[in-house]
Amino acid sequence: MKRVLVVQYSQSGQLSDVLSSLIAPLREDPRIEVTVETLRPVEPYPFPWPILRFFDTFPEAIYLDPPPLQPLAVDPARRFDLVILGYQVWFLSPSLPVTAFLKGPAAQQLLRDTPVVSVVACRDMWLMAQEQVKRLLAACGARLVGHVALVDEAGSVGSFLATPLWVMSGNKGPRLFGLIPRAGVSAEHVRGCRRFGERIASVLERGEPLDEGLLANLQAVKVNERLISSETAIRRGFLLWGRLLRALGRQGAPQRKPVLLLYIVWLAAMILTVVPLAALLKVLLTPLTQKRVAAQKAYYGAPSGSR
């Protein structure tokens, strides 16, 4: 009997749907036992988000300050053949409940010397968050053998308004007769995650090693090279703003609010100016930087590979 642990945190339920589709073939196999662990913060995060509460989580998210979690249902001493880790992206970082799990003592036991497949569903920027997840997994002694990244069907431009409106209203849309498209990962892509579970089940059944080739050639990730420099630049800005806001007090501190408003204006300006300009510059310089871009795509796409 092979044992698979699924660790997840999903506010809207979208990531849970993705993971349910992915692990369906594992659950259907009588030779595989699947355990699902849903992370539960002591102070739950709301969905939809009140706008200031949403942005007030930013400093702690970018600096990976873990909130307290309720005890896990699973025994941390139990051993699993594979762990599937599902997470959302908050401000170019893993969501705080997932950060808390990865920095906690239970993860040190559950993940040590264990292969892990990470799964993310987000707007379009996940590269910097995955870098943090890689680092946290390595600190636990885990082996990252696969990554699945699903992004909003609306694309970078369409999701600029669609995703925040969904997060703050709970309604995916579309809105304004389709001028603002539907937010979230498409139903087709959610259903398509079944192919990853089929590959994992096949490898487990045959007793083959779970290594970096686990999800190869399944289009598990697509690295948008035009967003690499944008994510890097925005993360640097996030670290500066986050340091300032943390110095002003804890989450909910009233002295944070004026600075949060300035941060929101800065963020909107960055998305409307730096992101498209960086993308355009990337395209213009492509003939001169093909090898460097190819190396970046290979790095960020590992271990599943980029299309």
Task: Report on this structure.
This protein has two domains: 2-224, Rossmann fold (3-Layer(aba) Sandwich), CATH 3.40.50.360; 226-293. The longest helix has 45 residues, at 257-301. Helix 1 (14-28) runs parallel beside helix 9. The strands form two sheets. A five-stranded parallel β-sheet has the order 2-1-3-6-7, with helices on both faces. 50% of the residues lie in helices and 13% in strands. The two termini are 33 Å apart. It has eleven helices and seven strands. Strand 6, helix 6 and strand 7 form a beta-alpha-beta unit.
Secondary-structure blueprint:
Blueprint (H helix, E strand, L loop, with lengths): L1 E7 L5 H15 L3 E7 L12 H6 L1 H5 L19 E6 L1 E2 L2 E2 L1 H7 L2 H7 L3 E8 L4 H14 L2 E9 L3 H15 L17 H6 L1 H13 L21 H21 L8 H45 L6
Parallel strand pairs: 1-2, 1-3, 3-6, 6-7
Antiparallel strand pairs: 4-5
Helix pairs in contact: 1-9, 10-11
Structure in a nutshell:
The chain is of the alpha/beta class. Helix content is 50%, strand content 13%.
Structural class assignment? alpha/beta
Largest β sheet strand count, sense and barrel closure: 5 strands, parallel
- Taking strands numbered 1, 2, ... along the chain, how are they ordered across the largest sheet? 2-1-3-6-7
Number of alpha- plus pi-helical segments: 11
| Secondary-structure element string | EHEHHEEEHHEHEHHHHH
**pLDDT averaged residue by residue:** 92
**And the CATH topology of the largest domain?**
Rossmann fold
Strand content: 5-15%
Helix content: 40-55%
Kindly state the number of beta strands: 7
CATH top level class name of the largest domain:
Alpha Beta
Globular, elongated, flat, extended or rod-shaped: what is the shape?
Answer: globular
Oligomer: single chain
Distance between the termini: 33 Å
What would you give as the CATH superfamily of the largest domain? Flavodoxin domain
When the domains are counted, the total is: 2
